[in-house]
Amino acid sequence: MVSDFYGFVEEVKGEVENKIKLEISKGFLKRIGFRLFLPLTVNFVTDCGSASVTVFKDGSVSVSGEFSRSPDVTIHASFEVLKKLYSSRSREEYLKAEREGKVRIVTHSLRGRKVERKFRELLGGS
Q: In this structure, are strands 73-77 and 40-46 parallel, antiparallel, or unpaired?
């Protein structure tokens, strides 16, 4: 199951990297706007493991199997809930899971607060 978690994180990494690179390719102003918020580090904390995903200014993304000590955002959820939300992208399911305390997104910086909405969208929350 732990290897499933890291495979999941790699899948998220690929999606994030593609979206960021697409956005920064749309022109100079978009590139400058994104670079104001990068690098950005997100910790995923689940019952099956923890991982840190960092998005760099050039749009590349790295994954570490270790928890970052200074993340901008931390996403807490069981692995099963995280997979379900990611695959369904259902706003209703996300809101229900959040209400029930099954998923929690915590921001730790101004950059984290600015991009929190994007991570909620990734899980179906916005």
A: parallel
Sheet holding 49-55, edge to edge: 61-64, 49-55, 40-46, 73-77, 103-107
Residues paired with residue 24 on neighbouring β-strands, in sequence order: none
Q: How far is residue 34's CA from residue 106's CA, in Å, rounded to a whole number?
A: 21
CA angle 119, 4, 120 (to 5 degrees): 10
- Reported as a single tens digit per residue, the pLDDT across 75-86 is 999 999 999 999
The structure's pTM equals: 0.86
Could you give the domains of the chain? 2-118 (3.30.1050.10)
CA pseudo-torsion sign 81, 82, 84, 88 = positive
